[in-house]
Specification:
198 residues; mainly alpha; 84% helix; globular
Length: 198
């Protein structure tokens, strides 16, 4: 019983840390172009917390500054992709577009899958690693780990739905999504280690 209470307490503490991380993440991502850096710093913070390392506000912002120096090009590309997505949705919102529902569904699917790749890359980031390599590796992981991609895609869908219902929910849900990205990465690493041993 005591062990179950301890596990519950640890899980609840991790949830609280993810919610706090969501606040920092949203603040750091407000300029939009800084989203990759904010995701990277948030993932590093959650991973450090899980590992029992001393981490906090100062560590998050130090990681954010380091990630920004390496990810600003990815941030600009993200802004461009967002503008293209918005333009595409504006066109699809017009009446009389042939196959409009199918194109809209495909647009959302591609955007969701791109978000999962970005989350995987952010969860793998460490200072000094180039984002081009991170994104290529994340794309390979997304193809080879269908269940992990499904988890992240579901998390993105929940984030969008919650934010649509009440925009303030983007703060806690962002932290939970980062926690999911860290968990998916660690699960894949553990699975790969087991396969090598077998």
């Amino acid at each position: 019983m005591a062990r179950r209470r301890q596990a519950f307490g640890e899980g609840f503490a991790l949830l609280a840390e993810c919610l706090l991380t969501g606040v920092w993440l949203v603040l750091a991502a407000l300029p939009v172009v800084t989203l990759p850096a904010a995701l990277s710093a948030a993932a590093r913070h959650v991973a450090a917390y899980v590992d029992g390392e001393s981490t906090g506000w100062g560590g998050f912002w130090a990681d954010f500054r380091a990630a920004w120096r390496e990810s600003w090009r990815a941030g600009l590309a993200l802004v461009g992709a967002g503008l293209l997505l918005t333009l595409n949705l504006m066109v699809l919102a017009q009446e009389g577009i042939p196959g409009r529902p199918g194109f809209a569904l495909a647009t959302f699917a591609v955007a969701g899958l791109a978000a999962t790749v970005l989350l995987r890359a952010a969860a793998a980031w460490t200072p000094g690693v180039r984002w081009r390599g991170l994104l290529a590796e994340a794309l390979d992981e997304a193809r080879g780990d269908a269940s992990g991609t499904g988890i992240l895609l579901g998390g993105v869908a929940v984030l969008v739905a919650c934010t649509w219902a009440m925009w303030l929910l983007i703060v806690p849900m962002s932290g939970c999504l980062i926690g999911a990205a860290v968990a998916v990465r660690r699960r894949r690493i553990a699975r790969d280690a087991e396969e090598r041993r077998a």
